[in-house]
């Protein structure tokens, strides 16, 4: 009963008008303003805003023609961001790209050309191989502490790297290398 009275004070809620093409373009540009997006992410954002399918398609095509919507460029940007800030293994990067709607064809092409996982370094500061990514992830995780010697702690560190998308062989090699590179390591 109280709920009925409360709703009657506000009046009936009307559905907002779906955005027209200029409003949809503004929504899309604002969404793209924070970081690059995939076509799928932008399409979902416009759907949440209530844009009609034809308005959404026209907006996406217009942004793609202007160069603001490119899944291949997004995949390159995403990989570089991961390498700079939070190194991940090839498997994790591929999964993150799939979650953001990058097609399997684009991901497969990047893997085939070596741009996900092992790639030629454009920037000297970026890791070029999966092993370098794993080493950097381990160093950041340890934060200057020596690598532990207890088997349980080593397993925990290994699982951390596996959760980051590194394959078990790379994890074992990275931990082994880190253990030998420590002063007094065996």
Describe the 3D structure.
The chain is an all-alpha fold and 186 residues long. The chain folds into three domains: 20-69, Orthogonal Bundle (Arc Repressor Mutant, subunit A); 71-112; 130-181, Orthogonal Bundle (Arc Repressor Mutant, subunit A), CATH 1.10.10. It has helices at residues 2-10, 21-32, 39-48, 53-66, 71-85, 90-99, 104-112, 130-142, 151-163, 168-181. The radius of gyration is 23 Å and the shape is elongated. It starts with a helix and ends in a 5-residue tail after the last helix.
Can you summarize this structure?
By secondary structure, the chain is an all-alpha fold.
Helices and strands, in order, run as HHHHHHHHHH
Mean of residue pLDDT values: 85
What is the count of structural domains? Answer: 3
How does the overall form come out from the CA principal axes?
elongated
Q: What's the helix count?
A: 10
Biggest pleated sheet = none
CATH class of the largest domain, named: Mainly Alpha
Structural class call reads: mainly alpha
> Which architecture name of the largest domain does CATH use?
Orthogonal Bundle
Question: Keyphrases for this structure?
Answer:
single chain; 186 residues; mainly alpha; Arc Repressor Mutant, subunit A; 3 domains; 10 helices; elongated; disordered C terminus
């Amino acid at each position: 009963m109280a709920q009925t009275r409360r709703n009657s004070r506000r009046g009936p809620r009307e559905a907002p008008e779906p955005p027209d093409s200029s409003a949809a373009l503004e929504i899309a540009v604002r969404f793209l303003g924070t970081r690059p997006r995939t076509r799928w992410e932008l399409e979902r954002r416009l759907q949440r805003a209530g844009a009609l399918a034809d308005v959404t398609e026209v907006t996406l095509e217009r942004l793609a023609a202007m160069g603001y919507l490119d899944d291949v460029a997004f995949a390159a940007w995403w990989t570089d961001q991961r390498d700079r800030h939070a190194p991940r293994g090839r498997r994790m990067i591929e999964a993150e790209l799939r979650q953001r709607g990058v097609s399997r064809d684009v991901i497969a092409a990047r893997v085939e050309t070596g741009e996900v996982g092992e790639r030629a370094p454009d920037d000297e500061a970026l890791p070029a191989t999966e092993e370098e990514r794993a080493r950097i992830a381990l160093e950041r995780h340890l934060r200057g502490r020596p690598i532990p010697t207890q088997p349980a702690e080593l397993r925990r560190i290994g699982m951390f790297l596996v959760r980051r998308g590194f394959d078990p062989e790379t994890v074992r090699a990275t931990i082994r290398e880190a253990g030998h590179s420590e002063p007094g390591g065996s």
